[in-house]
Amino acid sequence: MEKLTIRLALDLDGVLTEHPAPLAQAANRALGMQLPDHAFVDSAGCNVPDAVREWVYGPGGPASLLEAAPRAQELLQRLLDTLGAENVWIVTARPARSRAVAEDWLRRHRFPACRIEFADDKVEVARALGVTHAIEDSLRHATCYARAGITCFLLSSEPAPADESPLVVRVPDLAQAIERILSLAGEIGPVLPQANARWHEPEDAEPRRRRIVISDLIDEKARQRLAAEADIVDIDGRDRAALLKAVQDADALIVRSETLVTREVLAAAPRLRVIARAGSGVDNIDLEAATQAGILVLNAPGANAVSAGEHTIALMLAIARCVPEANASTHAGRWERKRFKPFDLKGKTVGIVGLGRVGSVVAQRLRAFEVRLLGYDPYITRERFAQLGVEPVDYETLLENVDIITFHVPATPETHHMLDADAIARLRPGAIVINCARGEVVDPVALAEALQRGHVAAAGIDVFPEEPAYASPLFGLPNVVLTPHIGGSSREALEAVGEIISTTTLAALRGEIVPNAVNLPAASLRAPELLRLTQVADAAGHLIAVLQPNRPSTFAVTVRGQVAPDVAEHVTAAALSSALRRWSDRRVTPVNARLVAAELNLLVSVRFDSSAAAIPEFSFEVDGESPHHVTVRWDRKDAGIMEVDRFSLERPLAGHMLITHHRDRPGIVGQIGTILGRYEVNIAGMQVGRHQRGGEAIMVLNVDDPIPEEALAEILTIPHISTAYVVSLPEPAPQMAGRPVRAALSQPAD
Ligand SMILES: NC(=O)C1=CN([C@@H]2O[C@H](COP(=O)(O)OP(=O)(O)OC[C@H]3O[C@@H](n4cnc5c(N)ncnc54)[C@H](O)[C@@H]3O)[C@@H](O)[C@H]2O)C=CC1
Ligand SMILES: O=C(O)C(=O)COP(=O)(O)O
C-alpha cells in the first residue's frame, strides 16, 4: 500500500517551549541589551550576538527556566505514536554546545524521548534527514523550509500575505499544527477515517448558511433573492474597518465601484469564495490577488451599458443645449434667451474611444443624431466597426479630427491618462470631452487647465480618479457638467445587474459554473452539463490523489474526441484542484489550480487528440514510483470514471469503494468477501478488470458500510494483493441513477 511518510522537524523555542519573550527580557535585564520580545523566536535571524545566545541557552541560563508550551508533552507523544519515533526530530538553532541544557530541560518537563538536532542551517539538516514537514514559530525558518520544498506549519495568528509560499501553512497554535499533521497522516494512511471518506471534503462539520457581505446599494429584489439562501451582512464598503471585519467569515462579497477589494481585504477573508462586482468595471478589485487566493470574481458586463450609454448622451446634450446653466438662470428668474448659445449634434464628428458594450450603445444612439462617428479600439474587428457604423482610425487621427471625444475603455495601465496634456494638445480648439468610463483615463489637471484656457470648450464628467470625489481641479469650472458616478445607476440597470449578480453568486457558492466569471474561462457548454462533467472530473482528481498520495511532478491530461478548449480547461482545473487539495495544504479551487501547481513545480500538460474517440474522454495521468491513470468518459450528457490504471470498468465508479490491485488468482474475491463479512461490511456490488487471465487485475467493491482499518489491514495480508484503497466518489447524476453510463454511451452523441 502506498503511504505518505511524514518526517517531521519540530522547532524547540516557541513550539515546545512557551513563547521565548522571557529570554529577551532576561538578556535586557542582565546584560543591558535592548532586544525586542521576539528576538529569540529566531535569535540568529535577529542578529543576537553569539555571546548573548551562549549565555541565554547555556548552563543555568534563562532558557532553562522557560515553561513548556500548553500540552506540548502530550502532543509530542501523539506525534511519536502516529508518525513513528524514527520520523520525528526536534531541530533547533540553539548553539550545539547547549545540548545538555536542552536535553535536561526536556527531561525535567517530562517530554517523551525524541532525537534533537542542533543546526544553524536547519534546512541543510532537514534535507539530510529526509524531512517532509516542519513546525516553526519563525517566519524566516518557515520560509527557508518552504523554499526547500518542505511544508512548514507556522505558528502565527497573523494573516498570511497573499504572496506567501503555498508550503507555509499558518496555524494558531501547536495543537492545531499537530491536528493538521495527524489528519494528513490519517487521511493517507491505510484507511480513510469516516470523516475523510467523502469525495468532496466539506468545509464545515455542520453545513452552515452562507454569509454574503453586501458593501453598496444593490437592487432590492436581488437582495431578497440572496437573503433567501444566505445570511446578509450590510456594510458601507468605504469604511475599511467595517469591511475588514465583515469579510472575516464571509463566503461572498458583493461590491460596486466604491469598495476597494485589495490584498489586505482578501487576506482578512479566509472563507471568501466569490467576489461579485454588481456592475462592469473590476478595476477596484485586485484580480491577481483574488486569483492567487482561488477566489472567483464575477461581474455583470453589459447589464448597465444602456444606462451608461444614455448618460453619456445626456452629458453631450446637456453641454450642447446649455442645460445646466440655462436651468439655473431660469430658476433664478432671469430670462436669458440671448445668453445661451446651444448647438446641434447633427453634422459634428464624435470620436468614441473603446467600442465595447457601452461604446456600442453610444455609437448606436448617436447615429440617430446624424453625426460622423470615428472610433478607436484596437481589440475589436473591422466587421464590428462596420456593424456599428463607426470609421476605425488610430488614436492620433481620432484626437485631431473630432468635435466631441468620449471614453468607454476600462481602467488599465494602458488607458491610464490616455487623455493627458499631449493628447489634449492634439484636439481641435473648442473640442468637448466626455468621460463616463473611469477617472484614471483622463488627467484632470491637464483637462482643467485646457478648459480654463478655452482650448477644450466643455467637458462632461461622471467619474473621478478618487471616489467619492469631494475635491477636483474640475470643480467650479463653468464649462464642466459633473455627475457623481451615476452613469450605471438607472433603475433598470440596477435591476438587471442585481438579477445577474444575485443568481450567479448563489450558483457559484453552490459550486455551479457560471457564465460571467472574470478569472475563469467562459464556458461554451450549458451550465448543468458542465457541472456534471466537472463534478466527475473533480472525483477523478480526488481518486488519482488517493492512488498517488505523494505529490507527483507531472499531471498530464489527454483529451480525446471533439471537445471545446474551454470545456477541457474547466475539466482540467476541476480535476487538478481536487487532487491538489490532497497534495498540498493550500486552499485550492479551479480558479487558482494552475497557479498553485506552478508554484509547487507540478507540471500540468493538456494534450488534445481529436482524431481518437467518438465519445469524448479525459485521461488524467500522474508520474511517481508507480504511475497512475484515471479516465473519465463523457457522452455529452453524463460522465463517469470508466478506467483506472488502464483497467476498463463496466460501470462508472461511484459511492463507497474498496479498490485493490492484485494478481488474478482464484479465491481472492472470496477471501476479501469473508474478511468484510466478519467486520459486517455489506458488499453492494463488484467489478473486476484485468488484461489477461492470471495477470495484473483491479477489483472495485462497492460497500454500504465504512471499512474498518483492521479489515483493510487483513485484506492487505492476502497473498497477491499489492495495494488497497478506500475511496468515496459521488453517485451518478439523478437522471442517470441506476443506468450504466455504458448504455448511455451507446446512444449517438449530440
Ligand atoms: N459611469 C458608469 O457608471 C459606468 C462606467 N462603466 C465603465 O465604462 C467602461 C466600458 O465599460 P464596458 O463597455 O462595459 O466594457 P467593455 O469591456 O465591454 O468595453 C471596453 C472596450 O474598451 C476597449 N479597450 C480596451 N483597452 C483599450 C485601449 N487601450 N484603447 C482603446 N480601446 C480599448 C476594449 O477592446 C473594449 O471593446 C469601463 O471603464 C466601465 O467600468 C461601465 C458602466 C457604467
Ligand atoms: O459598472 C461599472 O463599471 C460602473 O462604473 C458602475 O459603477 P457603480 O456600480 O455604479 O458603482
TrEMBL record:
<dbReference type="Pfam" id="PF00389">
    <property type="entry name" value="2-Hacid_dh"/>
</dbReference>
<dbReference type="InterPro" id="IPR006236">
    <property type="entry name" value="PGDH"/>
</dbReference>
<dbReference type="InterPro" id="IPR002912">
    <property type="entry name" value="ACT_dom"/>
</dbReference>
<dbReference type="Pfam" id="PF01842">
    <property type="entry name" value="ACT"/>
</dbReference>
<dbReference type="Pfam" id="PF02826">
    <property type="entry name" value="2-Hacid_dh_C"/>
</dbReference>
<feature type="domain" description="ACT">
    <location>
        <begin position="657"/>
        <end position="729"/>
    </location>
</feature>
<dbReference type="InterPro" id="IPR036412">
    <property type="entry name" value="HAD-like_sf"/>
</dbReference>
<dbReference type="InterPro" id="IPR029009">
    <property type="entry name" value="ASB_dom_sf"/>
</dbReference>
<keyword id="KW-0520">NAD</keyword>
<dbReference type="InterPro" id="IPR029752">
    <property type="entry name" value="D-isomer_DH_CS1"/>
</dbReference>
<dbReference type="InterPro" id="IPR036291">
    <property type="entry name" value="NAD(P)-bd_dom_sf"/>
</dbReference>
<comment type="pathway">
    <text>Amino-acid biosynthesis; L-serine biosynthesis; L-serine from 3-phospho-D-glycerate: step 1/3.</text>
</comment>
<dbReference type="GO" id="GO:0004617">
    <property type="term" value="F:phosphoglycerate dehydrogenase activity"/>
</dbReference>
<keyword id="KW-0718">Serine biosynthesis</keyword>
<comment type="similarity">
    <text>Belongs to the D-isomer specific 2-hydroxyacid dehydrogenase family.</text>
</comment>
<dbReference type="GO" id="GO:0051287">
    <property type="term" value="F:NAD binding"/>
</dbReference>
<dbReference type="InterPro" id="IPR006139">
    <property type="entry name" value="D-isomer_2_OHA_DH_cat_dom"/>
</dbReference>
<dbReference type="InterPro" id="IPR029753">
    <property type="entry name" value="D-isomer_DH_CS"/>
</dbReference>
<keyword id="KW-0028">Amino-acid biosynthesis</keyword>
<dbReference type="InterPro" id="IPR045865">
    <property type="entry name" value="ACT-like_dom_sf"/>
</dbReference>
<dbReference type="GO" id="GO:0006564">
    <property type="term" value="P:L-serine biosynthetic process"/>
</dbReference>
<keyword id="KW-0560">Oxidoreductase</keyword>
<comment type="function">
    <text>Catalyzes the reversible oxidation of 3-phospho-D-glycerate to 3-phosphonooxypyruvate, the first step of the phosphorylated L-serine biosynthesis pathway. Also catalyzes the reversible oxidation of 2-hydroxyglutarate to 2-oxoglutarate.</text>
</comment>
<dbReference type="InterPro" id="IPR006140">
    <property type="entry name" value="D-isomer_DH_NAD-bd"/>
</dbReference>
<protein>
    <recommendedName>
        <fullName>D-3-phosphoglycerate dehydrogenase</fullName>
        <ecNumber>1.1.1.95</ecNumber>
    </recommendedName>
</protein>
